[in-house]
Amino acid sequence: MSVQEDRIAAADRLTDVLARVVGTATHPSGLVTVTASAVGSLKHVRIQPAALNQGADAVGRLVVETARLAVDAAVQTSYNELAKSLGDSMAMAIEDFAGPSPFARKAEAEPEPPQAAPPPVPQPPRPHTPPAQAQRPAPPWAGQQTSAPRSRPAPPPEDDDDDDFFADPFRGQRR
């Protein structure tokens, strides 16, 4: 078998592998699980009955968010298959051309989430006292004099250029 035939056979195998690659993701709430291909076709959607209590719009958002996660997982798996078949350097070159994998983009774009603040300490209730009637200061625009209305800018001067010169391109050239 020649080198060319080996490459064609490897490309065919890689095409078959990439066509079968799917990613599965479960929404963080656990209410929806989606399996999708790297090109975005949904293979399987599973919705827990508890999700239906949230209404149609909420279920739609859950499915779309989870489908995006499943497609990202399938794309990442595709990159991994490319690296196994073509080698890391070729997969990195393809990644440079096509863009980083979804998980690499997320790692670059999303900083570490901030630590959750501790819950506030409950304060004992205070007795209600009516607020003192304090006078509010006047807003900054109160009491300002309005200026006279501005006059409009002068219109541009009329065009005194003789544009009709171009009406007859043969002026002065006829015999």
TrEMBL record:
Pro residues composition-biased segments: 112-130
According to the record, the residues making up region (Disordered) are 97-175
> Which residue windows does the record flag with biased composition (Low complexity)?
131-151
Gene3D superfamilies listed in its UniProt record: Nucleoid-associated protein YbaB-like domain
Q: Which InterPro entries match?
A: YbaB-like_sf, YbaB/EbfC
Q: Per UniProt, which keywords does this protein have?
A: DNA-binding
Molecular function as annotated in GO: DNA binding
Which SUPFAM superfamilies has this protein been placed in? YbaB-like
Q: Which stretches does UniProt call biased (Acidic residues)?
A: 157-166
Q: Which organism is it from?
A: Saccharothrix variisporea
Any idea what this protein is called?
YbaB/EbfC DNA-binding family protein
Specify the superkingdom: Bacteria
